[in-house]
Amino acid sequence: MRIIDDPIESTQYTEAEIRAAAEAADNWGTYVTVHAYTPRAIRQALAAGVKCIEHGHLIDEPTAKVLADEGIWWSLQPFLDDEDAPTLVNPVSRMKMQEVFAGTDNAYKLAKKYKIKTAFGTDILFDARLASRQGAILAKMVRWYAPGEALRMATADNGELMALSGFINPYPGKLGVVEEGALADLLLVDGNTLENIKLIEDPDKKFLVIMKDGTIYKNALPN
Q1: Which of 151, 173, 195 is the C-terminal boundary of a domain?
Q2: Strand duo 52-55 + 33-36: pairing
Q3: CA nearest 55: which of 81, 70, 77, 84?
Q4: H or E segment at 111?
Q5: CA atoms of 42 and 52, how far apart (whole Å)
Q6: Which residues is 76 bridged to in the sheet?
Q7: Helix count (H) and strand count (E) of the chain?
Q8: Residues 167, 192 share a domain
Q9: Coil, strand or helix: which one is 69?
Q10: Backbone angles phi, psi at 19, to 5 degrees
Q11: Those residues with Cβ within 8 angstroms of residue 172's Cβ, 6 or more apart along the chain or in another chain
Q12: What angle (nearest 5°) sits at the alpha carbon of residue 76, between those of residues 71 and 77?
């Protein structure tokens, strides 16, 4: 079946197949996350032992409550029909994406209402234009969250999610915290992002220092 003919309402794989993947991942010291949009697909993944749901924009309220009750992570993205919408020339794919756009606001409202462990997802790995706009996309989160909440989601909360990989964790120190022994990934921004989160939309000018794993890759501080 071609991907353009793949109905967004379809539920792929069986619970047993997903459980086999989750068990194999757990044996290897890591975990499984799934791309799922609908309540049925999400619930099947949870029953199979999945620890994180990617997307989930068509979720309903009872399923959102299950995520909260079971402590499942939700990697949600601010997919909107705006300048950062994926360019889909196929009309079938475009129609499916419109469904996702329509569910974004409700998804974030449910995530907040039930205090679900929510990560900032981007799903833009293969789009160079959107990859360069990650800061602008994160800034859109103020539609639902305070600037500090949005920034924490993309740093501390995402770090907590990635640490679920356990003994196979590829990172030599903690992520998303500023403390001794943590992985030293730090940004110094020219301004107060808690007052103006739009500062992160212009990293070339506003990111004065970029440090990754203790190595400084940019230092634009005045001498």
Answers
A1: 173
A2: parallel
A3: 77
A4: helix 91-113
A5: 10
A6: 120
A7: 9, 7
A8: no
A9: helix
A10: -60, -40
A11: 183
A12: 170
d(CA 65, CA 52): 14
Query: Can you say how many angstroms the Cα of residue 134 is from the centroid of all Cα atoms in its chain?
Result: 11
Q: Which two tokens stand for residue 98?
A: 């419109």
223 with 204, same domain: the answer is: yes
- How many domains is the chain built from? 2
Q: 182 forms bridges with which residues in the sheet? A: 174
Please check whether residue 105 lies inside any domain of the structure.
yes
Domain identity same for 157 and 205: no
pLDDT tens string, the chain, 223 residues long: the values are 344 567 888 899 999 999 999 999 999 999 999 999 999 999 999 999 999 999 999 999 999 999 999 999 999 999 999 999 877 768 888 888 899 999 999 999 999 999 999 999 988 777 888 888 999 999 999 999 999 999 999 999 999 999 898 888 888 788 889 999 898 899 999 999 999 999 999 999 999 999 998 999 999 998 7
Side by side, the strands of the sheet bearing 207-212 are 186-189, 207-212, 215-219
Q: Which two tokens stand for residue 121?
A: 């997802």
Residues 222 and 119 in one domain: no
Q: How far apart are CA 2 and CA 110, in angstroms?
A: 33
